[in-house]
Structures are given as structure tokens and as C-alpha cells.
Design brief:
Layout: H1 12-21, E1 26-29, H2 36-43, E2 47-52, H3 55-66, H4 74-85, H5 93-100, H6 107-124, H7 130-142, E3 178-182, H8 185-188, E4 195-200, H9 209-212, H10 214-221, E5 227-228, E6 233-234, H11 252-262, E7 265-273, H12 280-287, E8 292-301, E9 310-311, E10 317-319, E11 325-334, H13 336-344
Parallel strand pairs: 1-2, 1-4, 2-3, 4-7
Antiparallel strand pairs: 5-6, 7-11, 8-11, 9-10
Helix pairs in contact: 1-2, 1-13, 3-7, 5-6, 6-7
């Protein structure tokens, strides 16, 4: 799994227990990101629909959620990965954009990315292998990057891991069925089929995933976009069309309320963070239309990128981190008996 802000890695065991205790057979992960939570739901036997607006997230969902690993041709996947690992590097757009104009990866790995990505597009575009191979490539590149985990900037000096040579590995397909959907949550919520359990992990603040992970977006789209700034972001990061109502304090609450109202589900789970715009009371009120409401609180160490302080464009530290812990809220709403059963599973 790639380094990802808000991946819910530490919270997954709790969410998995809650999902299983709900008795749900069908579920929805509407802001799926890396699909970590959707994968957990799939592993407990649920048919999961995983949705996100990002192209890289859609690739993950096609790989880990929609594909049935029990029927996939593992030998064919292994042979394709071995073939891609045998390629020689070739400098192209990725090398120039993210190794020369910016320094996210060392050139030797940028050249491998260019060669592998071109071959995936040329040889596997119409194959079931396409998304698993893209996922494998992103995972491999993530292991040799030179960032703190987000792509708003790169490290001033090369990270130790960036010296390694990129190697693709089996992404690890999961048995069972599922569905991958890409699109704007405000449009999709009302169109989604009825499910037993819906899980929401909306953006918490003004920081945009489209900008935070623009390199992965470009790697999947493979559209060689114009770019800007020291971080060499995609030019469309500036477009209003790529900005989300969930990244604005003025519009976030009403947008979340609309999504919850549009969802057809028996039980709702929602993750939120105490550093964000909505209070526990506001979260409870927004989720109340779905039934009985309970809120669980979990104390976690903050994301590593938040612990190193803030630096200016010259690489000089301008402020220190203010705290090292935060509280993650998990809101549960639904039939009283179901909510009580879920609470007992984690106490």
C-alpha cells in the first residue's frame, strides 16, 4: 500500500470489526482513496462498491475491489510483472517532469517508470491486467520516492529509499466480488444502489488530494500535462473543476449532509478528525437522519508529514509542529439494535 494521508491504516481493524458486526452483506466506500477500508470490508465477505474521483484510486479499486482474485490468472499476472521488470529504462515525460524539473525520484527510476508505463499502455490497455499492473507500478514507485508521503513538495536531499532500484511486485489480488466507480460524490451518491452499510471518509480540510497526489494522477492518466511551480504540479490543479466543495469550510457541512441524505443504506459509518471543521455535535446532527447515532473516539499519532514542521520555498523551517496526536471520530448511525451490536464488537 502506498504512503497516503488519511489512509486509515491504524483504524482499519476497528472499522473491519464494526463492519462485520453490522451484519452487512453489501457495503459502499464512497471516498475510497487507497481502498484500504474497502479491502477490509471485502475480506469479511461483503460485496463492496468503492468510489472516488481520482484516477489512481479508480485503478486501485479495479485491482483490489472489482477483480476476483480467486478466478484471476495469477500466472499471467506474474509473467507480465516479470516482463516489465526486465525492461531497460527510457527517459520520457515522467523522467523530465519528476526527476529533472522536480526531484521526486532519481532519474534511473524515472526512466524505469517511463519504460514500464509506456509498455503497459501499448501491450495491456485492453487486458484485465491493465489496472493490476498500474497498481503494481505505483506501489513500486512509491517505495523509491523522495517525499514525506505527499507530493506538494519533495525532500531537499535525496531520501535513502530513493537510491534503490524500482522493482514491480504482485499487488496481491483479493478473492470475492466488488465494483469500482469513478466520479464526483455529489453526483454519485443518489445513483448508488441500496447497500446495507455505507462508509464515508470525507476530506477534512482545505488540503486537496488532487494536488497532494498529482504525480500518481499523471502516472495513471499518462496524459503528459503542462505543469507549474517548483513542485511541478499538473496545470489543472489550478482549475475550479478539480476543486472540491469538501475542501471549503463554507460548503463542506452542507455537501456532506446532502450526500448522507442521498445515500440509500441501512447503516452509516463516518470517519472524521478533531482537527477539522465540524464538531462532534455537528457530526451527530448530520448523521441523525439515518437513525440512532453513536460516536467512538480514538487517539492516534499524527501523520509523519505533520511532525517535521513547516518550511518556506528556500528550505528554511519557519514553524514547529504544534502537537503530535489527534482524535479520530467514528460516527455510527442506523437501527438501534445494529448500532448497539456494532459498539459491543469494539468494547
Amino acid at each position: 500500500m502506498i504512503k497516503y494521508l488519511g489512509s486509515k491504516r491504524t483504524l482499519v481493524p476497528v472499522l473491519s470489526n464494526l463492519a462485520e458486526a453490522s451484519g452487512a452483506k453489501t457495503s459502499l466506500d464512497l471516498f475510497t482513496g487507497t481502498t484500504r477500508v474497502a479491502q477490509a470490508f471485502k475480506k469479511v465477505g461483503q460485496f463492496v462498491t468503492a468510489s472516488d474521483v481520482a484516477a489512481y484510486s479508480y485503478a486501485f479499486a479495479k485491482t483490489w475491489i472489482e477483480l476476483d482474485g480467486s478466478t484471476a490468472n495469477q500466472r499471467e499476472l506474474d509473467e507480465a510483472i516479470a516482463h516489465l521488470n526486465s525492461l531497460e529504462g527510457e527517459a520520457g515525460y515522467f523522467t523530465k517532469a519528476f526527476c529533472e524539473d522536480a526531484r521526486y525520484f532519481q532519474p534511473k527510476n524515472g526512466q524505469l517508470v517511463d519504460a514500464v508505463r509506456n509498455r503497459i499502455e501499448a501491450d495491456y490497455r485492453d487486458s484485465w491486467l491493465y489496472y493490476p499492473l498500474l497498481t503494481s507500478l505505483i506501489m513500486a514507485a512509491d517505495k523509491v520516492d523522495s517525499t514525506t508521503g505527499i507530493q506538494m513538495a519533495y525532500l531537499k536531499s535525496w531520501s535513502a529509499r530513493s537510491n534503490a532500484t524500482m522493482v514491480l511486485k504482485d499487488p496481491g489480488l483479493l478473492p470475492g466480488g466488488g465494483r469500482a466507480v469513478q466520479g464526483d460524490v455529489l453526483q454519485l451518491a443518489a445513483e448508488m444502489p441500496e447497500v446495507d452499510l455505507a462508509y464515508l471518509d470525507p476530506p477534512y480540510n482545505q488540503h486537496r488530494y488532487f494536488a497532494n497526489y498529482h504525480v500518481w494522477e499523471t502516472l495513471v492518466r499518462w496524459d503528459a500535462p503542462d505543469s507549474y511551480g517548483i513542485a511541478n504540479k499538473r496545470i489543472d490543479v489550478r482549475d475550479d473543476a478539480t476543486k472540491s466543495v469538501f475542501n471549503s469550510k463554507k460548503t463542506m457541512a452542507s455537501a456532506l449532509g446532502q450526500v448522507i441524505a442521498d445515500l440509500k443504506c441501512e447503516t452509516l459509518m463516518l470517519s472524521y478528525n478533531n482537527e477539522s471543521w465540524l464538531s462532534r455535535e455537528e457530526l451527530a446532527a448530520i448523521c441523525a437522519p439515518k437513525g440512532e447515532v453513536a460516536i467512538l473516539d480514538f487517539d492516534f499519532k499524527r501523520y509523519v508529514g505533520s511532525l517535521i514542521g513547516v518550511y518556506n520555498k528556500k528550505g528554511l523551517k519557519v514553524s514547529e509542529p504544534t502537537h503530535t496526536r489527534n482524535i479520530e471520530h467514528v460516527v455510527i448511525a442506523g437501527p438501534k439494535a445494529t448500532v448497539e451490536r456494532m459498539l459491543k464488537a469494539v468494547k
